[in-house]
Each structure stands twice: as structure tokens, then as C-alpha cells.
Design brief:
The protein contains three helices and five strands, in the order βαβαββαβ. The longest helix has 11 residues. Strand 1, helix 1 and strand 2 form a beta-alpha-beta unit. The chain has a five-stranded parallel beta sheet, sandwiched between helices. The protein has 135 residues and is an alpha/beta fold.
Length: 135
Amino acid sequence: MADLDDDYYLDNDEQTIVFVMTSGPSTPGRCATPFYLGAVMASMDVEVYIFFTMEGVKLMEQGVAENLRAMEGGKPISEFIQDAKRAGVRLHVCQPALPGYRINPSSDLVAEVDEVNRASELADLILRSDKTITF
């Protein structure tokens, strides 16, 4: 295998990645990877945003992620969230999705949420990102 230098993985320009998280408690196997991958990318100096919409907003509701695991015996999703935050990942929640899940943005969201935004903010994040990934 050829030797790879640092430039192989990143072009050393600033990069922005947006994860659009629509998966939630009904599909727990899909819930850890965006946080894990986001933390890895953030540790590589990539600007990472996770925007929660549809059922994904449930992951940001207090008490949900603590009791959810991607696989039997795995760590709680809440620990993946905390790891991502420590790495610098920014968490945005879709305000229009909250009423459908009876989530009050001022009292029901976990402390790790950075912002509650409208769909226009998601559109802006996507348009200015280098890559958008959906889960």
C-alpha cells in the first residue's frame, strides 16, 4: 500500500459538513453514527452541524437519548451526543417539527442543543456546506 500523507484525507481547506438527522427512536440503529462520524470529522478541524428534523427531533428531547442504544449492549445515544459536543459539533433542532411531537423548545430540549431554527436555516446550512449527509 502506498504511503499517504496528510493531504490525502483533507485538502487542508476549511470544510463544512451538515448531517440532516431524520432518524429517531423508532430506528435506534441509525442514531449513533451521525454523532460518532461528526465527532471524528470535528476532531479533524471540519465544521460539523447536525440538523434534527422529522422524528430526529425526538433525540434532542430530555430523557430520550439516555434510554436509547444503537445496538444491544452498546452505550446510550446520549453519550454519543456528549462526545460530539466535546469535539465541537453544533446541534440544531427544527422548530416547525417540534409541535408535532409535543416538544416545547424552551423546556423539553437537552442542554446540548445549540439552536432551534426554522427550515430556512437548514436550507442555508446545506447551501453553504461542502457536503450534506442524511440519516
